[in-house]
Amino acid sequence: MSAAISEGVGKVRRPELSHKIDIEVSVNDAILLASDEGVLTALDDRTLRIWLRRQSGKYWPSVCYTLESAPSALYYHEASRRLFCGCDSGLLHEFSVAEDYNKITLVCTYLGHQTRIHAVYFSPINDLLLSVCREKKFNWYSTKSSDENHQYILGSYTLASWGMSITMDELSRQCFVGDSNGTIYFLKLDADNKYQSHTTLKGHTGSVQNLLWDPDAAWLFSGSFDTSVVVWDVGANQGLAVELNGHSDRLVGISYDKSCKILLTCSADGHIGVWPMNVKRNETPKWVESDSCQICHLPFFWNIHAMWVQKQIGLRQHHCRKCGHAVCDKCSQTRTALPLLGYETVQRVCNDCVRTLRNDETIPLASFYDARQGTIKMDYNQVKKIMMTIGTDRTIKIWDMSSVV
């Protein structure tokens, strides 16, 4: 059973561990099956496996398919039973999965990458396969078997650093790509599968490990190695972004339950976050730079002239998380959570903001639970309310989240 770290408002229940799958080799990626009680895994021993729950209640592999190199990224479209797999070698494979999950058949191998593939995405509406890899390339392919030479790339875009994550708005054909420098690229593909324009978003200081698109709200969720999640309100066309801070380790998984309007997050230290998204949060303020404290006006340590005039030793600069003003330590002694600004852990608040701070601004909104497992990835099934976490200990845990969401 997981341990609750912070219960939040009205949250007295916690995820329940329902099943464990112990695997003898490292797991690179895994996907929960929606229509059956099973898990697809990409393992470091160069195998793809499908694990089904048997009558005994334990999970056993029904398929073991060996590849030419270790599979590193998976995408499964359950309605069409099409499984896409990226490998360490740079190859992309498409498989057809049998209805009883007892066989997978190789359909096509896509060429174009030379190094480890970090993420793949399949768009059934547009018949496109998207991929990013360690060679700083974002590639897209046609998945129509009727297209001549469809196993070769339709187009490619060079990134500034490793591509780490990818998602797509299928109706507008807008692609979102996260890289290892913390940049998110927007590239729109036209009807001829050529990119028309691109722009970038910069809100992370670490690798963008996870991207998730909600077409209904037009929200883009990004999870990063900098421990934060940013919710980009792309539909508002105003560049609005809400930052969510509550984890103390890098983000390895994010999922959004549309029916409950709840964001689920998981960090590398095994902490699961449950964030209600039907609450209006405010953007975190930009930090103001100043040569002196904006409250007591004493100089900071680099302000040599003011230090000489005032005969004052320079102070260290800090920032209030509520207003963003530059302040000294004496003028920012208070520490409190600011959930409406996305801060679920205690933060520095200046003396001016403390005077106007309301009690309802400090009430926790999110809940956090300890899975007691170092984690490399998570997945979530919205219909069944179950979550899967992949552990560094080569164990897959399946959680019943119905009491939480």
From TrEMBL:
Broad class of where this protein is predominantly found: other
A GO term for molecular function: zinc ion binding
PROSITE patterns: WD_REPEATS_1 (PS00678), WD_REPEATS_2 (PS50082), WD_REPEATS_REGION (PS50294), ZF_FYVE (PS50178)
InterPro entries, A to Z: WD40/YVTN_repeat-like_dom_sf (IPR015943), WD40_PAC1 (IPR020472), WD40_repeat_CS (IPR019775), WD40_repeat_dom_sf (IPR036322), WD40_rpt (IPR001680), WDFY1/WDFY2 (IPR042234), Znf_FYVE (IPR000306), Znf_FYVE-rel (IPR017455)
Protein location: Early endosome
A cellular-component GO term for this protein: early endosome
Keywords, alphabetical: Endosome, Metal-binding, Repeat, WD repeat, Zinc, Zinc-finger
FYVE-type domain location: 287-358
WD repeat intervals: 201-242, 244-275, 378-405
Protein name: FYVE-type domain-containing protein
Organism the protein comes from: Adineta steineri
